[in-house]
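The instructor's notes for this session suggest beginning with a concrete chain rather than abstract definitions. Hand out the sequence below and ask the class to guess, before any prediction is shown, which regions might be ordered.
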Amino acid sequence: MAVPQAATSKMAARKVKLWYGAKQALFDVDLDIAANSVVALIGPSGCGKSTFLRCLNRMNDTIDGCRIEGDIRLDGTDIYDPNVDVVQLRQRVGMVFQKPNPFPKSIYENVAYGPRIHGLASNKAEFDEIVETSLKGAGLWNEVADRLQQPGNSLSGGQQQRLCIARAIAVAPEVILMDEPCSALDPIATAKIEELIDELRQHFTICIVTHNMQQAARVSQKTAFFHLGKLIEFGGTDEIFTNPKQQMTQDYITGRFG
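After discussion, reveal the predicted structure:
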């Protein structure tokens, strides 16, 4: 029997299974992501958390031999329906990767690129407004306003990651997926990204994969613990970290394995 999507869910996954060739990487994952909240996916390396994240905007479609079963819905619509336009889906469900990956273009063009492709602006004034709003939204405007024509990769690592966040929000997504967005950053840059996530939650729904449990505790409202491709436990972040229901969750959080 299908589990109904909770009324407050922006995205809902039911019985999601995934294979890379003959190897099964996800087993019957059920997860709800509430609107305007941050869900953190935690677990040891290779546990399926990034694989699951990539299911949410069909990034796994690009991998040969990858097969998925189950049901993933965005506002109640099956994102794997053959009629769904994957380009439009990825506009609605944006992604920020582990390593900052600005395009080899100017800071301005990095942010304007998506809106240009999707036809979201028709003249320079509209592009200027999107670029400024997006850079402000990513907490970067004050640092780069006077050098928008410089290459995006001339920025520091932390600034490049915030540029990638600006690029993601420039196309007005509803959901932002973040795959270990701070793992390549120093503690100061990481703190800025964490503050930013809290601000972005007012406007977007966020799902973040992190190997840093303290980060999950700081930024998320709900936490999902994965192990060997299975969702072991999912609940309020405070509860997961202070009073988990599953012994395996307790063991992972207290450092007994992982």
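Then share the key points. The two ends are 34 Å apart (CA to CA). The first helix runs from residue 49 to 55.
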